[in-house]
Amino acid sequence: MDSCPQGSEVECTTTCGSTGTGTCDSSCNLPAPSECTPPDETCNGLDDDCDDVLDNGFDCAAGAEVACTTTCGSTGTGACLDTCQDPPPGACIPPDETCNGLDDDCVLGADNGFDCIAGADVTCTTTCGSTGAGACTDACAIPSPSSCTPPTETCNWADDDCGDDVDEGLWDELISDVTVAGASTDALGPALAYGTTSFLIAWSENPGAGLGLYTEALDLTGSSLGGGARIAGPNLNIAGDIAWSGSEFVVGFQDSRYGNADVWGVRVAENGEPVTVEVNISTAENGVESIRVNWTGSAWGFSWLDMRAGTRLYIADVEPVTLIRSYEFPVTGGAGSVFGHFDSAWTGSSFGICWGDDRAGSRQLYFKTVSRMGVDVVTDTAITTVFDEVYTCSIAWTGSEFVVGWAGRKLAGLRAGYVMRVSEGGSVVGTDVFVDQVASSSPGRPVWVEVADGLGIGVAWSRYGGGRQSVVVRRYTFELDVLGEAVVASDGTSDAVSPVLAWDGSAFGVAWEEMNSVADSDVTFSRVGCP
After folding, report:
1. pLDDT score, position 152
2. CA distances from 345 to 65, 238, 418, 444, 481 (A)
3. pLDDT above 70 for 332
4. Separation CA 302–CA 323 (nearest Å)
5. What 3-state DSSP class applies to 311?
6. 476-504 burial, b for 16+ CB within 10 Å, e for fewer?
7. CB within 8 A of 108, min separation 6: which ones?
């Protein structure tokens, strides 16, 4: 039987294996593959038309792995559908993420896994350590400090704009100097503290019948909120110190109504009005000086120089409401060893105390810590050794260590101010830092230190220059690096001495004694910070 009728049109196998058509030859044989005409291409994953391309004419070869568009628009891979159509985005497998400013892998946005999106605006660290802005690099890296544009300077105790100054153009006196007292009488020796919304200032004033103790509350503009009246005296009252408990102030002061200068205290509301009458806390046969007050969290800690048996430092634990002394102890010994103004600061568990002491033959600065009951935690420790004379000191607790400011002469040199860091254990951290020449006639503490919570240290001092004494306020880091320029807080037309500082959460209140003439001294207040 013939394979196919001669000359008839028959199915045959093409060169690519598909079933085509051809003409049966004269010997009734099927056409050879080369004589077999391929069929039209169909969607079957095969090469039907023998052009070496599977499913040509369709989107893709059925079942083949093809490039496709993912759900996030990147080019991924997937299997061509049985209908020879590209896989839909949901069936398209995304590629790995690359740095190109796009979301390749459809996970977590563009350039995830890299530092930033190429070309995008990002925050970065400037050459001075502030947070600036720049463009993410082509390698998806945060721009280098030199390519990071600094921000505008803000008031934050830091150099934001990399201009080498701190808060330049921002840190200054916020109010004009306010004469609190003494326009026509003699006002002396201010003490200053801040509560929650206002400052309390205390001073001694002589309206002609002897020194009396006065207080006045001031708001942040220096405007009076109340007080301003005599709350003790006239009995040679001398303002010592003010502390804030969280609800009210206590003012510690000297009062000589019984003949000798004794330790007294009075509770004062934040509006400047006395809460109770003044209370005699301690009586010394030969008088007291330089009273300091600290709030311990549950009681008032009073400390003072006491001359009952030589000159020694005493400390007393005082009940918060009645101001009755629970007990008192001498915390230094040795007649005549303590002199000048001392200072104390509460750490939360003990008092840090600094004072001048000549026990070693020259006036050096000493330090110790004592408990509320006057028990030594760290015994007397000399923290200077090269000074011929140390006059006064001021101490503040930073939360981890003390900062001490004092005035003295280093090896019979210039009378100058210094600051020093001291550990809670009494070890000097680093070296003393020179502040400035200080006024020699300042009757109080010519160098005052105050902590600005979480920010740094404020230092005020009485500077002598140009024939005048002026009060200056400067900021330091906790490491005692200078922050910016000094700010003069008095007008320079009269002598300004005995500065005190109080931090209000954003700026320093500063009070001082303005010596207009021998017969007329004013107590003046200002506020230094950023607008």
Report:
1. 92
2. 77, 21, 18, 18, 22
3. yes
4. 10
5. coil
6. bebebeebbebbbbbeeebbbbbbbbbbb
7. none
- Cβ-count burial of 37 within 10 angstroms (0-12 exposed, 13-18 middle, 19+ buried)? middle
Which residues have a Cβ under 8 Å from the Cβ of 509 and sit 6 or more positions away?
192, 194, 199, 218, 501, 502, 503, 525, 526, 527
Strand 279-282 to 520-529 pairing: unpaired
Q: How far apart are CA 435 and CA 467, in angstroms?
A: 19
Q: Could you give the C-alpha distances from 28 to 12, 34, 36, 38, 349, in angstroms and in order?
A: 13, 17, 15, 20, 117
Q: What is the pLDDT of residues 282-304, one digit of tens each?
A: 887 777 788 999 999 999 999 98
**262-268 and 415-423: which strand pairing?**
unpaired
Closest CA to 189 of 435, 462, 438: 462
CB 444 within 8 A of CB 469: no
- Contact residues for 467 (Cβ-Cβ < 8 A; gap 6+): none
Phi-psi region of 73 (alpha: psi -120 to 50; beta: other; left: phi over 0): left
Q: Residue 508 has which token pair? A: 């320093």
Contact of 237 with 213, CB cutoff 8 Å? yes
Where in 129-175 does DSSP place strands (E)? 131-135, 172-173
Sheet strand arrangement including 447-452:
447-452, 456-465, 468-476, 482-488
From the number of C-beta atoms within 10 Å of its C-beta (0-12, 13-18, 19+), residue 449 rates as buried
Contact 95, 88 (CB under 8 A): no
Q: Which residue has the higher pLDDT, 227 or 223?
A: 223
- Whole-angstrom distance, CA of residue 194 vs CA of residue 409: 32
Angle (CA) 52 53 55, round 5°: 140
Q: Which residues contact 454 (CB under 8 A, 6 or more apart)?
A: none
Give me the DSSP letters along 242-310. Answer: EEE-SS-EEEEEEE-TTSS-EEEEEEE-TTS-BSS--EEEE--TT-EEEEEEEE-SSSEEEEEEE-BTB
Q: How far apart are CA 234 and CA 209, in angstroms?
A: 7
pTM of the model: 0.78
Helix, strand or coil, per DSSP, at residue 34:
helix
Three-class SS of residue 235? coil
User: 129: which 2 tokens?
Assistant: 């350590």
Mean pLDDT, rounded, for 59-75: 92
Q: Are 469 and 489 in contact (CB under 8 A)?
A: no
Per residue in 152-188, pLDDT (tens digit) is 988 888 889 998 788 877 888 888 888 887 666 777 8
Distance CA 429, CA 416 (A): 20
Q: What is the reported pLDDT for 1? A: 42
Look-up of token digits 């200053």: 192
